[in-house]
Amino acid sequence: MHLTLNKGDFVCIVGPSGCGKTTFLNAVAGFLPIAEGSLTVDGRDIPGPGPDRAMVFQHASLLPWRSVLDNVTYGLELGRRVKRGEARERARELLDLVGLSAAADQHPGQLSGGMQQRVNLARALAVEPEVLLLDEPFASIDAQTREVMQGELLRICVEWDVTALFVTHDITEAAFLADRVCVFGPRPGTIVKEVDISLPRPRDQHIRKLPEFQALVEEISDTLHGAAAGPGAPAANGGTA
Ligand SMILES: Nc1ncnc2c1ncn2[C@@H]1O[C@H](COP(=O)(O)OP(=O)(O)OP(=O)(O)O)[C@@H](O)[C@H]1O
Ligand SMILES: [Mg+2]
Known about the structure:
Elements lengths: L9 E5 L6 H9 L10 E2 L2 E2 L7 E4 L11 H12 L4 H14 L15 H14 L4 E5 L7 H18 L2 E5 L3 H7 L2 E5 L6 E6 L14 H18 L13
Helix pairs in contact: 2-3, 2-4, 3-4, 6-7
């Protein structure tokens, strides 16, 4: 399997449960050793975790005893020698970016799930990663908030020139966000197809209504279901309507 991520790309990964999406992200993050093949960032092998890659997990996993602001500064305190005042200033900018300036002094328990996930995103961005790795970050958020978050994420990625690798089970989410959607097969470590999402940017919510958008969603869905049925199944586009 081969996947190239160029600077500024937004690539989404979809695939059946258990096909290795999380494992793949963990390998890119450097949390796992690679059994065979290679993973490189900027042409260099990945030796382990590093501040050039930041992970956003499905559950925000914020530190409950720290304020929202101090949760965002946490990564900076751990990773690099940044002066405390500087870290706090930077964290305030990030909270502003995710629309949570007013919640800086609150604690995670006082926030909604969507707000916690915004803090999670701000915390990942705090280390100024080259690549942002996101594993179903909006899966536990209600549909309406999720659409808002998707729009916000796109805005942030453009503003910060972020390269993103985003795992999701939600095909419309993948089509809305991505430049390319990579469909993993049921056998771990296989890519069935890469679907180019050639929809113009910047994208707003209206794009979901376009026939081109719906056609792309259908293409991804057919690929996914064809792949899930296994190699002996009829071609995805040759089955019943
Ligand atoms: N390339 C691989 N080779 C062998 N085993 C793998 C590989 N990738 C993943 N696995 C194994 O498959 C299992 C499921 O992997 P993983 O959690 O990454 O799936 P997932 O696609 O994230 O599933 P879900 O959609 O349910 O979150 C794990 O036990 C993992 O060790
Ligand atoms: Mg997973």
